[in-house]
């Protein structure tokens, strides 16, 4: 199995808060490099023919880093939309139950992401049937390796926002929280 750059589900001009220029670099160059490197590292190894998820959960070192970054980025890009959406149904119930309200969730998620030191990811994960938790990982970290189900992530590596926001990570987070594809997030939940 050779991995390929997944297409974005929206036009590069559609998000509004992230520029086409940033997406050209972030999706078209950064993610492409992770995918290309994963393909090179997998070729001729015991990982050949395995999915990114299988590789990510059973490898270490450079292979883990590149496979996880490939998986993380694809997931992140799927969390975004140019349309204004709100969570509904079971997802909204779980957010209210675990965080008090959608606004309180957004405040806590933004605070965790702004406070995520250095490069990494901040996640909303499902830890049980009705349990949600916010967690941050460094570098290529992914909550799946710790047994959690990610349902939302934000990339806080500087390349995700620096061309548009420079050092204003908090502003990036504020705008990110208004461009979440809650339908995608809900589709990642498990019973």
From TrEMBL:
It catalyses: 2 superoxide + 2 H(+) = H2O2 + O2. Its EC number is 1.15.1.1. It is an enzyme of class 1 (oxidoreductase). Pfam families: Sod_Fe_C (PF02777), Sod_Fe_N (PF00081). One of its GO terms (cellular component) is cytoplasm. Signal peptide: none annotated. GO terms for molecular function: superoxide dismutase activity; transition metal ion binding. InterPro entries: Mn/Fe_SOD, Mn/Fe_SOD_BS, Mn/Fe_SOD_C, Mn/Fe_SOD_N, Mn/Fe_SOD_N_sf, SOD_C_sf. Keywords: Iron, Metal-binding, Oxidoreductase. Residues 2-80 form the Manganese/iron superoxide dismutase N-terminal domain. Mn(2+) binds at residues 26, 73, 155, 159. Residues 87-187 form the Manganese/iron superoxide dismutase C-terminal domain. PANTHER family: SUPEROXIDE DISMUTASE (PTHR42769), SUPEROXIDE DISMUTASE [FE] 2, CHLOROPLASTIC (PTHR42769:SF3). Destroys radicals which are normally produced within the cells and which are toxic to biological systems. This is Superoxide dismutase. The lineage of its organism: Bacteria, Pseudomonadati, Pseudomonadota, Gammaproteobacteria, Aeromonadales.
């Amino acid at each position: 199995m050779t991995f390929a750059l997944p297409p974005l589900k929206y036009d590069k001009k559609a998000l509004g808060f992230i520029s086409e220029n940033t997406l050209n670099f972030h999706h078209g160059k950064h993610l492409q490099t992770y995918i290309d490197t994963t393909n090179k590292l997998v070729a001729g190894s015991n990982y050949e023919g395995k999915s990114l998820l299988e590789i990510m959960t059973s490898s270490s070192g450079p292979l883990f880093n590149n496979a996880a970054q490939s998986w993380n980025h694809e997931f992140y890009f799927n969390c975004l939309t140019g349309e204004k959406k709100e969570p509904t149904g079971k997802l909204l119930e779980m957010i209210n139950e675990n965080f008090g309200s959608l606004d309180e969730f957004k405040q806590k998620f933004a605070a965790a992401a702004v406070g995520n030191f250095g490069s990494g990811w901040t996640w909303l994960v499902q830890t049980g049937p009705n349990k949600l938790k916010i967690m941050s990982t460094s570098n290529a970290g992914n909550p799946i390796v710790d047994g959690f189900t990610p349902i939302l992530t934000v990339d806080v590596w500087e390349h995700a926002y620096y061309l548009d926001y420079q050092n204003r990570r908090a502003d990036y987070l504020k705008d990110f929280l208004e461009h979440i594809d809650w339908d995608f997030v809900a589709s990642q939940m498990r019973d």
